[in-house]
Amino acid sequence: VVFTAPTAYRAMLDKLDGRDIASLSICVSAGEALPKATFDAWQARTGLPLMDGIGATEMLHIFIGAPREAIRPGSTGIPVPGYEAKIVDAAGRDVPDGTPGRLAVRGPTGCRYLADPRQAKYILDGWNITGDTYLRDADGYFWYQARSDDMIISAGYNIAGPEVEACLLTHEAVAECGVVGAPCPERGQIVKAYVVLREGIRGDAALAKTLQEHVKAGIAPYKYPRAIEFVDALPKTSTGKLQRFALRQIARGAI
Q: Which domains does the chain possess?
């Protein structure tokens, strides 16, 4: 049984040749958004689906996931038995299915911030506000959009960086990527992608243009990255999660 983040699954894909994984039976992904491209690539190489899930330190547990027989690739899943989840607007009101909003959860686990102003932001009418933007479909499945503070607002459009990342990862040249908003005097922000290429591929203006066109063809064209920077590595935590806050600082020229 393997529990790890999507970044680690992507890293393992190129190391499976010649390995005996016959004993592997269950693969669980959490810690960051699971792109459909990673799900598809892992299943194609191993024959095993990735069971996605989301939890929170404050909840002490995964509260949305999907059993293997009910996985919908690209969706985090449905509430774990014992937990409730819904989507609310900025005022805490329920929003219709299909509408992006703040994820609110509650259940049998949780903890409290002591003498800390974050408690007032994290709890709303008994619900835990996780800081994630999600939408729920008509069947009750929850679809990750972005961390609420990772939404890119460009020329009035709300753009979720992970959606652009997921599209970029479907291109054969891309090994890893991170997408954040970069300051722009005309648009407020532009979508900027930091891309790690697969071994042996050289990043240049022509490839950047190809990747931009790839995104335009895969999702709404206005979401394409207007700037692409090829890098050798992305900033990550000790557990392998992408540090988007570090990318945002780089994009702002802070580091």
A: 2-148 (3.40.50.12780), 155-251 (3.30.300.30)
Nearest-angstrom CA–CA distance, 192 and 44: 30
What dihedral angle (degrees, nearest 10) is formed by the CA atoms of 70, 73, 74, 80? Answer: 20
CA-based nearest residue to 78, from 90, 62, 89, 91: 62
CA distance to 56, 68, 106, 172, 207, per residue, from 202 (Å): 38, 38, 48, 13, 8
Closest to 160 (Cα-Cα) out of 243, 225, 94: 225
Task: Give the tens place of pLDDT for each residue, 102-161.
Answer: 999 999 998 888 889 888 888 889 999 998 999 999 999 999 988 877 789 898 888 989
Q: Give the C-alpha distances (Å, rounded to integers) separating 109 from 20, 105, 114, 147.
A: 38, 11, 16, 22
Contact at 8 Å (CB) between 103 and 134? yes
**End-to-end C-alpha distance for the chain, whole angstroms:** 39
Closest CA to 16 of 37, 52, 41: 41
pLDDT digits (tens, 9 = 90+) for 22-80: 999 999 998 888 888 899 999 999 999 999 999 988 899 999 998 889 999 999 999 99
Q: Position of tokens 């709890």? A: 123
Q: How would residue 254 be classed by pLDDT, with cut points 50, 70 and 90? A: low
Q: Compute the distance between CA of residue 255 and CA of residue 99 in angstroms, rounded to an integer.
A: 36
Q: What is the pTM of this model?
A: 0.75
Phi then psi dihedrals of residue 134, to 5 deg: -135, 170
